[in-house]
Amino acid sequence: MIYYFSGTGNSYAAAKTLAEGLGEDLMDISVAAKENNYTHTLAEGEKLGFVFPVYAWAPPRVVTEFVKNLELYYSGDPYIFAVCTCGSSAGKTMDIFEKALEENGLMLDSGFSVIMPDNCITLFEPDSAEEVAEKFEKAEQTLDNILRAVKLGWSDFFRVKRGRFSTVLSGIANPAFTLGGMKTKPFYVTDACIGCGLCEYHCTSGCIEMTAGRPVWTEDQCHMCLACINRCPAQAIQYGKKTANRGRYVHPIYQTEENGEMTE
Question: Mean per-residue pLDDT for 28-34?
Fold first, then answer.
């Protein structure tokens, strides 16, 4: 089983590649959490993976809370691995995730980071088309290497790009982000809104409701996955004053599924 969390598709694409390569099933953490589905029984030889993005140099809070509450049934010692996707560096993300697992009596055998295009348009302009293409090419090779390591069952094996000042960034910047950077108040919708309701459908935290054909954020905080703002087909959702002049980012896997296949 591979559990994943994804707002704009990077982690979903990575998780799907790994699931297909390993012959494992996929489960969306946000869906499982909403449905209170925290139980899983591992079959003999089944590997357990977690794939998630890096938010301000740490795992999304919904991910760590999920693994702390996961009720896992198995025999023997299960092989557990984790993959985090990030725009440049992961900081101490994997250490934080590993600690959450240990609080649930589970041990992380291997951990990896994969550089992917940045989706944090509330702070930065998204990567250029050339940068996106370059990151995808390198990510493909990285995922091949991860598949090889997991198939061989390598234990105590970690390949994570922490970057500089990882302790400071994960220990100071992330708590600041959690306290003040996850507010929904700066979200607003412009007259470009077409009332399609996709923002409500894609919201991983379930805090958007369509009211009179317009999205309303019903909670003070959200996961800040930015699915609503990046996946809005009319670019009608903004966050504060800066996003109106910035591009949007959605992984091609979501664009393809929305245009032809069922969206996951």
Answer: 97
